[in-house]
Amino acid sequence: MKETTIFLKQRLQRVHVAAGITFSLVMYLAVFFGIFAILLPYIQVWEKPSRHIEYMDVTKIDYATMIDPVISDPNFPTNNIQITLPGYQHDPILKVSHQFVEPVYFDPNTKEQINNEGDQSQLAKFLNHMHYGRPLKTFGYLIFGFVAVGGLFLIIGGLILVIMIKYNNNAKKPISRFSKLHRKILTWVFPPFIIITLTGALMNIGYTASAPMTYLVSKGETHRIFDLTSPILFPPIQNVEKQNISADMLPIGELIQKASTINPAIDFQKITLINWKDISAQVKIEGYNPYMPFLNGISNKPSITLSAVDGSLIRQHKVMDKHWSGLFFDSMYFLHFLFGVDTFTRLLIATIMSVSAFGLGFGVLLWLEKKAKKFPRNIPFYHWMAKLSLSVIIGVLPATALLFAMQWTLPFDLKDRFIWQEGIFFVSWLATFTWSLYRINSYQAAKEFLKLAGVLFILSPIFHYINSDFSLIQLWYQGLVQIVSVDIGLMIFGILLLIVGFRLPQKNNEIQKFWSKDL
Amino acid sequence: MIFKNIYKTLSTPEKSGRRIGLFRTLCAIFGGLIVAYLGMTLLVFLIPTEASKSITIPLMLNTLAWAAIALWISISPTKWIALLRSVIPSFIFAIAITFAYYGSK
Predict the structure, then answer these.
(1) Apex CA A44: angle with CA A38 and CA A46, to 5°?
(2) Residue A126: is it exposed, middle or buried by C-beta count within 10 angstroms (0-12/13-18/19+)?
(3) Contact, A285 vs A268, CB < 8 A?
């Protein structure tokens, strides 16, 4: 082989290893909390007592009795009132909101206003924030953004390595097992992974960094990217002249039915009331077309605008009416946001991401195993990176489990409830780091973390049952399937962690055997 | 004389590819960023619609381009080539952007 190709391969490998071990742990955290963010709609229903209500068919709801008292308040604006329909992001409530006032929440079954927990219950929100570094504000955004760029660097470099180098897949040492799993998993998951990382990098650092580019291409008009793109991506609602003649409005349920005969493909999510109670009143009903995934849902929302007086069609926006730049935008963001998609797609993406979390983990294990190889087998391997990885990768499990267990044990009227929950989460996570430093045998610590996490995950649906007074059977019979499935999901996850916790080897020779077994 | 020495140090190939070194790392990170950013800015001018529409693509691909070019620079055979790979495309793109800026309406 020529010397230059040898050097090229060495360099490719070297940059992959160096960048990989630098970015791996944060990348893992982004993926780990990202899985919870994919399941956010179900968690946010599960976590709140006010959301333990049945789903209603959006066409059968009596909107007037709920909305009229709100908007007859002279302080409530009458133009561009937003109604978020039940079922949007799996939330069973009806929300009436406006840009300038506090939103009002209703239970569509009883038509009564509900007491929204607001900041008292932020479990799903917090898990989503952990996904992109928000608890650390700008610093966190930058870190996660640079890690995403590093992720792209690693994906490209890794793919070139897999193509260029012939790896031995049959060796049965732990080191080659880790290498094989790391390569195989990430080669398989790279297409969705690269798109999700790309959009993640864009959101965390891309928009901030786009100021000079925007300034140049707009010839000095603006440096804010949204000044340029939002008229295309998020066009504002056209202003309709108010006639100041009051008129009777058609029931909103009937208008939704009309809209669904015009375009039956759309799942309606949001209604905007324009000049409500005036003769010029219009409703803009928008949603998501599940038959055209990747093309709508983010910036592109198919909509139907009807006259609220006689129900005649004023304007219609179909999926393909969007400019191609908007379609491109949506197709890239679709996999990251998954707005409006069904449970199956969410679970599929969550599974792919869990598998890639393992891929990242095996990468770290491979690096550590290479370090450990330099020492004789009878000396326990003790390396700061091993301990840090242990507490980040496995230690995050008991901390997250505690977060879930606390959700239904802390009283909902506790002052600063969320600060307690968040604080205990971070402290217990830090505790796993000290524990991993204390335990010389990392496998022993890992087993303990997994068992603890398993028990806490199994306990959280039990706490939910005790403190919400909803048993699984009751939830099922009341049609609260989302909440039942979160309970069952937590239970299964806990049991899996317990099984892994008990099955993992602890003694040195067992570890060697464990990783050499036929998988 | 100094420049000749610097050139000589930079252009001598290393004996092994197992060390990347600070010089290549810096070239890859900052050179890669500048090349990618200027290239993507040029792309806005090259896509034949208004900037408000065409900017979506470069905006999306910016970070990917950064990663790809950083990889390309970091694996150069010598330090000198790493430097060239970060400087020459930057110059070409910068000049092209200047033309596009004053040339387009």
Answers:
(1) 115
(2) buried
(3) yes
A213, B55: Cβ pair inside 8 Å? Answer: yes
**What amino acid occupies position A441?**
N
Q: Which residues of A touch B16 (CB under 8 A)?
A: 7, 10
- Which residue in the set A198, A218, A328 is minimally distant from B63, CB to CB? A198
> Is A221 among the domain residues?
no
Identity of the residue in A9, A194, A329 whose CB atom sits nearest the CB atom of B56: A329
pLDDT tens-digit readout, A9-35: 999 999 999 999 999 999 999 999 999
> A3-38 and A123-131 are packed helices; what angle lies between their axes, rounded to 10 degrees?
170
The answer to whether the CB atoms of A10 and B17 lie below 8 A apart is: yes
d(CA A366, CA A180): 10
Residue A63 lies in a domain: yes
The ipTM value here is: 0.95
Q: How far is A7 from chain B (nearest CA, A)?
A: 5
| Closest residue to A217, CB basis, from B13, B37, B51 | B51
The CA-CA-CA angle for residues A429, A430, A432, to 5°, reads 65
- What pTM was estimated for this model as a whole? 0.94
Show which of A322, A341, A360 is a domain's final residue: A341
Query: What is the domain range of residue A136?
Result: 1-42+121-209
Whether A244 and A187 map to the same domain: the answer is: no
